Amino acid sequence: MIYNMDFETMPREALESIQLRRLQTTIERVYATVPFYRKKFDEAGLKPSSIKSLEDLNRIPFTTKQDLRDNYPFGMFAVPMRNVVRIHASSGTTGKPTVVGYTARDIQTWAELMARSLAAGGATGEDIIHNAYGYGLFTGGLGVHYGAEKLGASVIPVSGGNTKRQIMIMEDFGPTILTATPSYTLHLAEVAKEMGVPFENLKFKYGIFGAEPWSEKMRQQIQDMLHLVAVDIYGLSEVMGPGVSIECHEAQKGLHVFEDHFIPEIINPQTGEKLPYGQVGELVFTSITKEAFPVIRYRTRDITSLNPEPCICGRTLVRMQKVTGRSDDMLIIRGVNVFPSQIESILMQIEGVEPHYQLFVDREDNLDVLTVMVEVNPTMFSDEVKVLQHQERKIASEIKDYLGVTVTVKLAEPKSIARSEGKAVRVIDRRKI
Ligand code: DLL
Questions:
Q1: Could you report the per-residue pLDDT of 182-233, keeping only the tens digit for each?
Q2: What is the average pLDDT across 275-294?
Q3: What are phi and psi of 12, to 5 degrees?
Q4: In what order do the strands lie in the sheet with 367-376?
Q5: Which residue's C-alpha comes closest to atom 29 of ligand 1?
Q6: In a mutational test of the pocket of ligand 1, which residue from 236, 300, 328 has the highest number of ligand atoms less than 8 Å from its CB?
Q7: Which of 35, 44, 81, 402 sits a CA distance of 20 to 30 A from 425?
Q8: pTM of the entire structure?
Q9: 242 CA distance to ligand 1 centroid (A)?
Q10: What does the DSSP 8-state code read for residue 378?
Q11: Is the per-residue pLDDT at 375 higher than 80?
């Protein structure tokens, strides 16, 4: 179902004229209210009136995560605190979190975009949504929650954790839509199995999974294990939270970006040069309707490409390819660039291997070495040591063949790798220790 026919299927020309008007208004506002942006504009010799076309966006300097850190906690807010009704923060692996704010209208916009997202992912007002994204400073829980209410669905605000109770709720309340991170979803499936609750007996039709990278192979695995159609949802706190883009369940091929609210660009992360449709690079967003926390050319560090081709679902909104990883998650192992999700794709194709893995990076003799630790099923684990060692070498050689990197593979006992209730920790970098 298309929630907002007017905006989601708008002809390109009409959309671009709305984008330009909203962009100009946003630029005027941030220039007047956020000292950081005024300074950036002045340094670049730009005035709000310099932005006459969408192409002029190109002349505006980028905003980075470091800029947000420098203005911690509220320095980038474009409205006085009395107009802010909600604050969220993204965890950030080091140091202080990134703090974002919303006006009452921002919350309404977010609810609308999440209602659109849930509808694109297969939900309707008739559905019961089991929302296992964490509630709190993380945007996942409340983002989905408001969207589900706006759509008129019934939302179960179960949040992450207390997994056995979640399975009981699934059995008793009969939810039809599951929202969670893909890694927590796998854990839910595993616990359900242990409890003797087959997912095929539950009522789920669609799962709307995101907040972390997950490969196409992982999607297949999840669909098979949970007996539902799995779609990918993307977002980031700095731009809004979940609902920046979403796959439609009809195509499951690329995530429609809500371009009437966010302008996406792809740049070469090294040079900052803007790249054409189809080329892979770093995703950059400009928000054009946000009031409390607008971002101008924000570098997400997420790697993807944009596809303007029409989609079978009828939406005219550009699609971004599934995010393969963040530029800062990319590992460089003896000169070869690898994303954890590429390794995941290979592991998921190997019989007996479970979708639970971790990558360890160490430094030996000034060279980076990668160890892939992956769980195997109990049958495989009970094999002789010789058989396991043979399997480890076989997987390492598959990885070498596909990705050109030399890794050590260690097969781990079932259930030995920590399960996540939110975003999974895939890479453990031991080089700094
Ligand atoms: O993860 C918002 C969200 C919540 C999205 C629930 C989807 C569902 P942050 O905590 O600020 O916000 O983290 C944002 O997570 O820059 C990406 O690197 C990564 N990410 C989010 N969605 C996806 C996805 C939320 N579908 C950061 N695929 C982003 C790959 C994703 N990576």
A1: 999 999 999 999 999 999 999 999 999 999 999 999 999 999 999 999 999 9
A2: 98
A3: -50, -45
A4: 407-412, 367-376, 353-364, 427-429
A5: 236
A6: 236
A7: 402
A8: 0.96
A9: 7
A10: H
A11: yes
